Backbone:
C-alpha cells in the first residue's frame, strides 16, 4: 500500500463502504421491481464493478449514489435481456428517485429507510434467513444480498469452490421466488422463533470467521449485521444479547494469537490486550437487553462472556456464576455443545472428575466434534491419565482442519 | 399462491396408536379443516392405504411399461392424502400446517409444495 496515494484504499475499507449501501439498494430495487432475484443480481454486478473501479480510482464522494446508479443500469440491462419486461425497464429508466435523469441518485440509505419507518433491509434479512432454506443457503444469501459480499468473497471465507457457492445462491433465490417466501418481518408470536433463526445465521457467520485468517472480515460483518438487527428491533432483548455476545468475543480478537500466530486459549491470553472500549460497549448492550427482563440464550451466552471479560485474571474468574449461567442456558438450549461448555465450568467448580463424567455422557452425540476430545484430554491430564489424554488429543487433532487449532493441539501432544 | 399439502404418515408407527386417541385425532382434523375452510380449493383427497396402490413404471431399455403392486416409493412414509390451498405466501401455509392435529403423532409430516403457475404463460 502506497500511503502517499490518497486514492489507495484497502479491500476491507471498500467492503465497509459497500456493506453500508448494498443491502439498502437491493431492498429499494426489489421494492420497485417486485423481483428479488433481479434486484439482487443487479446490485451484485454493481458491487463487482465498484470493487474493480474503486480499487484503482478511489472511492467516489457519494459511494451510495454511485452504487445505486450503477445497480439501476445493470437492472435495466437485465430487464432488457428479458423481452417481456421492456415496459418495466423503460419505467425504471425514467424513475427520478433512482437517478433516472442521469445524475447520481440521492443517498439510497435515506431513501430506503423512509419507507414505513423500518429499515428496508430487515424484511429482506428475514426472507434470506427463512427456515424453509438450508442453513448454508441462508448464510450465503444473507452475506450477498444484505452485506453486499461478492460470491467470490463468500466462497473464500467458507472454503467452498466459487461455482458451488454460485449454484447454492441461485438455488436459494429460485426457492424464495417459487415457494413464495415472504419479505416481511413476522409479527406476534411468530417473531420470536424467526428472529432466533436470523440471529443464529449471524452467530454462525461470526463463528465461521472467528478462527480463519481470511474470515476476520466475515466476523466484522456479523457484528455489523447484529447491530443492524438490534437497532431496527430495539425492543427485542435477544438481538441486543447477540450484539453484546459478539462484541465481547471480538474484544479478545487481538489477544487470541501470540506473536508467532499461535492460537491462545482463554487462560493463556494476555488480558491487557483485550479491548476495554469494546467490553464497555458490550456491557452496555447487555444491560439494555437485561432491562427488558425476557431471558434468552444469546443474552445468557453474552453474560458468560461478560464474566470472563470482567475477571482480572483466569484465576479470578467467577466460575460459580458462570456455571449457574450455563445451568440456565441448558434449560433453553440443551444441545450437546452447550453441555460440553457447561462441563468446562463444572470442572472449575467441582473438579475434573465430575466434569469428565458429564463429558463422557455426551460422547455418543459429539463423537466427531474435535472440542469434545480436546476437553476430555484437558480433564484427563488434570486427573493424571496422560496416556488417555494423549489418545484424546490425537483424536481431536484428526477431527479439525483448522490450521491454528491443529497447531495448538500438536503443542499439547508429548513428543 | 397455490400450494399442495401432502399429508404423510408412518403406518408402522400409527399401528401403535390406541383406538380412542385415533378417534380424538379425527375430531381434531375435522375441526382443522373447518377452521381453515376458506383457503382450500376443490382439489384434494384422502387416499386409500398404500397396499391398495398400483404403480406403472418405465420399462427397462425402452420396453413396455411395467405394472407393479404397491406405491412408487419404498419409503416408510405414506402419503395419506393431499389438499390444494390458496394462501398469500409460504408463511401463511406454514402457520396453518403447524396446527395440523396429527403432528402430535410420531412420524407425521406435511410437505408444502408450490404449484407451477402457468397464468403468466402466453
Residues:
Amino acid at each position: 500500500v502506497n500511503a502517499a496515494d490518497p486514492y489507495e484504499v484497502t479491500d476491507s475499507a471498500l467492503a465497509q463502504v459497500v456493506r453500508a449501501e448494498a443491502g439498502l439498494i437491493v431492498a429499494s430495487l426489489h421494492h420497485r421491481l417486485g423481483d428479488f432475484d433481479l434486484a439482487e443480481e443487479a446490485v451484485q454486478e454493481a458491487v463487482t464493478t465498484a470493487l474493480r473501479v474503486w480499487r484503482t480510482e478511489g472511492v467516489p464522494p457519494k459511494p451510495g449514489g454511485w452504487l445505486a446508479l450503477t445497480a439501476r443500469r445493470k437492472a435495466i440491462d437485465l430487464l432488457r435481456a428479458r423481452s417481456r419486461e421492456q415496459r418495466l425497464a423503460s419505467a425504471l429508466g425514467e424513475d427520478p428517485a433512482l437517478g433516472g435523469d442521469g445524475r447520481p441518485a440521492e443517498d439510497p440509505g435515506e431513501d430506503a429507510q423512509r419507507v414505513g419507518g423500518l429499515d428496508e433491509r430487515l424484511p429482506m434479512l428475514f426472507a434470506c434467513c427463512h427456515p424453509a432454506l438450508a442453513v448454508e443457503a441462508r448464510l450465503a444469501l444473507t452475506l450477498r444480498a444484505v452485506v453486499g459480499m461478492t460470491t467470490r468473497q463468500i466462497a473464500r471465507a467458507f472454503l467452498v469452490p466459487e461455482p458451488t457457492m454460485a449454484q447454492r445462491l441461485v438455488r436459494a433465490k429460485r426457492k424464495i421466488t417459487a415457494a413464495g417466501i415472504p419479505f416481511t418481518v413476522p409479527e406476534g408470536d411468530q417473531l420470536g422463533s424467526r428472529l432466533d433463526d436470523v440471529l443464529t445465521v449471524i452467530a454462525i457467520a461470526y463463528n465461521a470467521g472467528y478462527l480463519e485468517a481470511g474470515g476476520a472480515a466475515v466476523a466484522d460483518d456479523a457484528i455489523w449485521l447484529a447491530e443492524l438487527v438490534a437497532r431496527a428491533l430495539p425492543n427485542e432483548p435477544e438481538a441486543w444479547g447477540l450484539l453484546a455476545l459478539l462484541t465481547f468475543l471480538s474484544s479478545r480478537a487481538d489477544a487470541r494469537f501470540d506473536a508467532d500466530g499461535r492460537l491462545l486459549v482463554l487462560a493463556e491470553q494476555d488480558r491487557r490486550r483485550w479491548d476495554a472500549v469494546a467490553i464497555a460497549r458490550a456491557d452496555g448492550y447487555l444491560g439494555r437487553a437485561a432491562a427488558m427482563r425476557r431471558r434468552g440464550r444469546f443474552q445468557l451466552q453474552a453474560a458468560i462472556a461478560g464474566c470472563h471479560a470482567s475477571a482480572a485474571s483466569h484465576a479470578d474468574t467467577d466460575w460459580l456464576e458462570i456455571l449457574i449461567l450455563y445451568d440456565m442456558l441448558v434449560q433453553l438450549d440443551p444441545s450437546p455443545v452447550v453441555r460440553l461448555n457447561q462441563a468446562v465450568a463444572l470442572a472449575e467448580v467441582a473438579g475434573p472428575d465430575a466434569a469428565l463424567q458429564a463429558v463422557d455422557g455426551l460422547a455418543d452425540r459429539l463423537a466427531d466434534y474435535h472440542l469434545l476430545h480436546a476437553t476430555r484430554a484437558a480433564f484427563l491430564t488434570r486427573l493424571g491419565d496422560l496416556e488417555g489424554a494423549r489418545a484424546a488429543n490425537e483424536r481431536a487433532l484428526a477431527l479439525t482442519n483448522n490450521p491454528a487449532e491443529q497447531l495448538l493441539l500438536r503443542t499439547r501432544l508429548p513428543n | 399462491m397455490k400450494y399442495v399439502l401432502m399429508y404423510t404418515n408412518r403406518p408402522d408407527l400409527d399401528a401403535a396408536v390406541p383406538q380412542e386417541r385415533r378417534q380424538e385425532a379425527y375430531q381434531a382434523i375435522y375441526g382443522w379443516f373447518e377452521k381453515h375452510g376458506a383457503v382450500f380449493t376443490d382439489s384434494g383427497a384422502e387416499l386409500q392405504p398404500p397396499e391398495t396402490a398400483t404403480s406403472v413404471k418405465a420399462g427397462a431399455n425402452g420396453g413396455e411399461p411395467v405394472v407393479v403392486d404397491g406405491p412408487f416409493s419404498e419409503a416408510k412414509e405414506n402419503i395419506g392424502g393431499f389438499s390444494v390451498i390458496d394462501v398469500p405466501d409460504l408463511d401463511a401455509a406454514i402457520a396453518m400446517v403447524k396446527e395440523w392435529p396429527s403432528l402430535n403423532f410420531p412420524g407425521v409430516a406435511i410437505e408444502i409444495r408450490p404449484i407451477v403457475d402457468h397464468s403468466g404463460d402466453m
